[in-house]
Amino acid sequence: MRKNILLIVLFANNLLFSQKEVVQIISANELKPGQTEDHQKLVGDVALKYSDAMLFCDIAEVNATTNDFKAWGKVYINQKGKIKAWGDSLIYDGVKEIGKLYGDVKMKSENSLLKTSLLYFDKNKELVYYLNGANTLQDDSKIYSKKGFYNTSNKYLKLKDSVKIKNPEYTIIADTLEYSTNSKTSYFLGPTFIELTEEKIYCELGFYNRTLEIGQFEQNAVLKQNEQSLKADSIYFEKRTNFSEAFRDVVLIDEKENLKVQGEYGYFDRNTNHSFITKDVLFAQGSEEDDTLYLVCDTLLLQEENDSNKSFFAYWNVKLFQAEMQGKCDSLAYNMKDSLIKLFYDPVIWNGESQLTGDSIELLHYDNKIQKLFVKNNGFIVSLADSTPYRYDQVKGRNLIGHFKRGKLAVMDVLGNGQTIYYAREEDGKYTGVNKAICSDIEIKFKKGKIDRIKFITMPEATFYPLKDFPKSKQILEGFIWKNDERPDSLKDILNY
Fold this sequence. Notes:
Elements: H1 7-12, E1 24-27, E2 30-33, E3 39-50, E4 53-63, E5 69-79, E6 83-93, E7 98-109, E8 112-122, E9 127-130, E10 134-138, E11 141-145, E12 147-151, E13 156-166, E14 171-180, E15 185-188, E16 192-195, E17 199-203, E18 205-209, E19 214-225, E20 228-238, E21 243-254, E22 259-269, E23 274-285, E24 293-306, E25 309-322, E26 325-335, E27 340-344, E28 348-351, E29 354-357, E30 360-366, E31 369-387, E32 390-405, E33 408-425, E34 431-447, E35 450-456, E36 461-465, H2 491-495
Antiparallel strand pairs: 1-3, 2-3, 3-4, 4-5, 5-6, 6-7, 7-8, 8-9, 8-10, 9-12, 10-11, 11-13, 12-13, 13-14, 14-15, 14-16, 15-18, 16-17, 17-19, 18-19, 19-20, 20-21, 21-22, 22-23, 23-24, 24-25, 25-26, 26-27, 26-28, 27-30, 28-29, 29-31, 30-31, 31-32, 32-33, 33-34, 34-35, 34-36
């Protein structure tokens, strides 16, 4: 990212890659003949000039014909004050135009310092590289890789094997990293970990432009911020706007709220704290399988006002599943601060043997269990008393308030316009008759998911029918509907619905 151009970049622009030049002997304490007539050996305080660079060493050999030269002992290169390099020895092949700097190699330019044991430079390929590891200090950044390559023509840098870049703003650990100095873009070509001030990123393919501060991370991509993590096949990220998009196999995990959301596409705006996930959405909250609340829908919106106030909005073909409770509706709102789940448009809830419907239903859900239930307008409770023939216990009223115990419906209060049909039984299970009543307010107690006792708060208008005398026309209360065939029996049912 910023300012992470290795010293190699600066070194590569020096005389070594200039047009072919002749090595000039500036000075030496002693000049000796070499192995051949073309060779010259220089000893003591040697100074050579090659293009605009000066080379200093203790001993040197120069071939005037091939323009080869070797240098030993306190090798020092100074290129117009722009770059300085030190090493124990230097070999340059004038024909192949390939050079090697050996030993305790150091290269310094402006605010950069590179250290390695062997540095290569190839004039024909316009390449500077190392293969034995190098540490670079640039401003406040520390950079390491086992292999590094820089192309002086297109100004393209490639770092390979155990790449690590560290400064106060971020840390990058990568297998392979490429960097274009022209576009100021980093390319990740293997497993890569990026740790920013607020984000942690993993990918196996991608890029990041430090000028625009945008990136695309692919192949098992993960973007983590605080206690939330986003996983996807591909993640687009804007640092300045704190905006991200995720594509294919999207998974959002909130460790604090112990929830997970899956889908095929999502966007996440951290400035407005709005998130959006769509297509085959699966929401799950809970730590234990039996207590986990599952929700599927077409689209899910997340609005986060602060860490303690998060709201979810689910739209279209919403289905709920929990071990003790199932449900469906067209849309749903879930406020996590007050643990209130609201179901709208043809909502239905199943708990035990009972079905509950109304214009809208609210569930007070905390500790991964339903604690209370509110049915507003046209509340209706149905449970199957006997399937041969079909007989239904029924309760309806203006509003219903349900009280739960260990996730099971225990008591239901009917408030206003109460009506009941109840099939009374002896202790041995034999039916004694049917009680049909009208009462403004009613209290109903449940046992094993079925109506057990009915208490009329005010004086009821009631009729008790022997079973054989109960008119068929009166066996169903107005507004009755039985949706048991729509009830999901397992998580697989709501996923494949």
